[in-house]
Design brief:
seven-stranded mixed sheet, alpha/beta, 3 helices, 25% strand
Length: 157
């Protein structure tokens, strides 16, 4: 069995996306990128140390993209521009949760998984997030909010 380690390369925040570069940007992807940019500005305003990474898993030719990671609080952030579980082209909450699970394997443990949504999720979607240990956040007055607190929580010191 191959015992190589994954390769993590830090890259500039906002320059690499988990979307094929050789395809035109869809309306969904444009909305998702705008939500990501908004959350990035919010997190930077709170003094979070944001990083992005390209990851090449050991023994794989795939390249994974971590669009946003708060290195101070070990928070992995993935955005989803819809509240639907699945949709055309593989977009939706299920895809975003799978992305969180996949990427978290390569980051420091424990890593809090944050799912940025365009609006407040219904109670069933909120329950799904809780079951998968994902914190849903969405735009609110003056920033982003969740059902747990008025802002995404910072881990205890």
């Amino acid at each position: 069995m191959d015992q190589q380690k994954p390769v993590l390369e830090e890259v500039p925040v906002g320059k690499h996306f988990d979307y094929p570069a050789d395809q035109p940007v869809t309306p969904y992807e444009q909305d998702r990128r705008e939500l990501l940019a908004r959350y990035t500005r919010f997190a930077q305003g709170r003094g979070q140390l944001l990083k992005s990474y390209l990851i090449r898993p050991a023994g794989s030719t795939d390249q994974l993209v971590v669009e946003l990671f708060d290195a101070i609080h070990a928070q992995l952030v993935v955005t989803c521009a819809t509240l639907q579980r699945g949709g055309a082209g593989g977009v939706g909450v299920w895809y975003a949760m799978g992305t969180l699970a996949d990427l978290a394997r390569f980051l420091p443990s424990p890593t809090q998984k944050i799912l940025v949504l365009p609006a407040e999720p219904d109670s069933d979607l909120d329950s799904l997030c809780a079951f998968r240990s994902v914190l849903p956040v969405w735009p609110g007055t003056g920033g982003f909010t969740s059902h747990l607190e008025s802002e995404p929580p910072e881990p205890p010191l």
